[in-house]
Amino acid sequence: xxxxxxxxxxxxxxxxxxxxxxxxxxxxxxxxxxxxxxxxxxxxxxxxxxxxxxxxxxxxxxxxxxxxxxxxxxxxxxxxxxxxxxxxxxxxxxxxxxxxxxxxxxxxxxxxxxxxxxxxxxxxxxxxxxxxxxxxxxxxxxxxxxxxxxxxxxxxxxxxxxxxxxxxxxxxxxxxxxxxxxxxxxxxxxxxxxxxxxxxxxxxxxxxxxxxxxxxxxxxxxxxxxxxxxxxxxxxxxxxxxxxxxxxxxxxxxxxxxxxxxxxxxxxxxxxxxxxxxxxxxxxxxxxxxxxxxxxx
Length: 297
Hints:
With 297 residues, this protein is α/β, with parallel strands linked by helices. It has a single domain, classed as Rossmann fold. Helices cover 36% and strands 20% of the residues. It contains ten helices and ten strands. The chain has helices at 6-20, 98-106, 127-132, 149-159, 164-178, 193-205, 223-238, 250-256, 274-280, 286-293, and strands spanning 56-65, 75-83, 87-91, 113-118, 121-122, 134-137, 211-215, 242-246, 259-264, 267-273. The strands form two sheets. The protein has a six-stranded mixed β-sheet with strand order 6-7-8-3-9-10, with helices on both faces. A four-stranded antiparallel β-sheet has the order 2-1-4-5. Helix 4 (149-159) packs parallel to helix 6 (193-205) and helix 5 (164-178) runs antiparallel to helix 6. The longest helix is centred in the C-terminal third of the chain and has 16 residues, at 223-238.
């Protein structure tokens, strides 16, 4: 059993509060069910904006983000979309800007320039409506460790206003995927790293969001759970939702993703249609492709 530290007692509160403050989310009927800063002179947006699609759930258009005035941009002109039924991977080396992009997408971080919309709602102009359509699993799996797993799930259901009658079957369904079992009634402070990851995933899905965002989702999961999560990701996207995730597990990315966006030193270096590429070239080596593109920033 893990000892609760001061860090993991206090660290989740701010990020979780930003994440989950949202009004009622639209039902997903299908189971599985500061002013804007100008870009630096001479670095105007180079990537053309994607054309709107009728099934588009996510649009990130010309995203720029820096953490201080004197710092370099952590993200520069990143642009991509994600449509219903798609799984999109966000790839890059450590410090490339993947987590920053995801946290801007989720609304946890303000950004300097660009637009982000979720299910048609601008994350700056309509943050609550945008967040109501998403679920987010952070890379540090921040949760309230003084709650039991069931209390945390109930809290997340309250925040997203999931009807009482739908909570028990939804939790039962999610437990069938993540296999927490009776541990759901134990304090989260007693959970292993992998168990905390599971309860975070369950909480992020309690309201059946149209967009599921995961930052390094496979880290710490046992092989059986990893296999189940990958299967669930395919089914969840096929049900008309979309998933965006970052990962260093290239084999899983190649297996799961319809498209990948490669970021190096904050810059978008490529966008690849994985399925099309593999279909056209059965000998395509995804690892070689990634290593060739991730250092181009």
